[in-house]
Fold these 2 entries.
Entry 1:
Amino acid sequence: MTATSAETIAQALALLRPDLATTIDKALDRAPLEWNRETGRPDLFGIPDRLAYLNWAHLGATTAAIEAANAWAMKRRAEPWRIERRDYFDEVEACRVLYAGLIGTDASNIALVPAASYGIAVAKSILANTTPGRIVVPEGEHYSNFYAWRRLTALPGWSMEIVPVPDDGDWTRAMIAAIGDGKDIAIVGAPPCHWTDGARLDLPAIAAATRKVGAKLVVDATQNVGADAVSPMAADPDFLAVSAYKWLLGPYGLAFLYVHPRYHAAAPIEEHSYHRAGATGRATKVEYTDDYAPGARRFDAGQRSNFATLPHAVAGLAQLLLWTPAAIQSASHSVVAAIEAAAQARGYATTKGPRAGANITALRREGGWPADIGPTLAKRDVHISLRGDSLRISPSLNNGLRDVGRLFDALPR
């Protein structure tokens, strides 16, 4: 844990009700992280030793601190008379502080939204008012960073260019080539890694090409933030959306949206009272204002103050800061590298292109996989996801080389 992480956690916990802060603080695992290369650390998440959970790109696991926070939250929700005015704001701001510390930005640049798709919708609503042009996205980009732009192409002047899957797996080269020197490019939608197979993209390089032609960069980094030592903020995106329920150890129904300060004066896509100036003290009378809370808070979704799930988010982000994304990436990449070596030795195709630090990989075989391969493997206590023609495998701290053997023992011959 760095001093910066310790300070960020302390700052966030100081915002909470003392009883919640104490509950989370006592349950956090503050011991130096020791990852076992052979067995992994399933104990950190309460995962049974017999089970190979290699499916973090689908859904993250929970920790002791999260379980404690969830128990506290459910008890509070069951007793609504315990909910105070401050509860509508404190956990929201604690999440904002922790997430901003994780990616390396100021908390005022972060909005709390219910999904990455909502965050991309905010970006679309703002960029729809700029000069129209081509929208460049990689083939097979996640739905959240695709459908919004396809909808935008219904307006005059907008069109979409889908960059084909490169034969050599070098998405960075393919994206930069598509951007070229085209002055008609308005938006580039790109992830740090492809969600179906973990193929890596060099976002700073793509960002440089994007800025060179005066376009805007919109990033869905759901499969990256929390599991990569390098934050997508290194690319200086215009917008960055990340769902919480995978690598952020967070709850379903929560995502974070980074909004570059140049857009902080833009109109949000919905209006409610809690993102307005002075909302914390306005409880007993109707009082309208045209002013918003500072920074990206105007883009917060309504009912962001989820009493049942925000303590989970706070505990998960705090634990993630303690363990660090760098440690998670190191463990994940070790397992990914072992899986890819074993796969190639057995004749499977694996994800092409740059693989340094990869936290996701995929196996492909001639003729594809049976549609029921996921449930079939689950019966043998091996959990993965089928995405297109890819058997997507996404390990974390709970996994070790033992799980690599379990995976290949369970695969059909």
Note: The chain is about 35% helix and 15% strand.
Entry 2:
Amino acid sequence: MLRGDYSLRGFSYIWMFPIYGAAFLLEPVHESIRGLKWPARGMIWVLVIFAMEFASGLIIKMAVGRIPWDYSGHSPYSVGGLIRLDYAPVWFVVGLLFEQAHEFLKKLLR
């Protein structure tokens, strides 16, 4: 878009389909932490998302030898190139937004 191309073309990896599909695992997490205060829930989301990103990245790295989102050399907060600890605030907010989206979809499907 910055170069005047508004076609929004991009590329991805087939590996990402099962990773994105694993988002269904977030619903039971949400149900089990529903009664906690939002700061605790946000921290749990950070841990869950980091764990999923780390595990899926490690599996892909073991299978293929590299990962699509290799953070090596991009941040001093990178852990094995698989996750970036400085993304914790983003995942905190995203997790809480997932909860809102989940609630909206539940109401929509009733």
Note: The first strand starts at residue 78 and ends at 79.
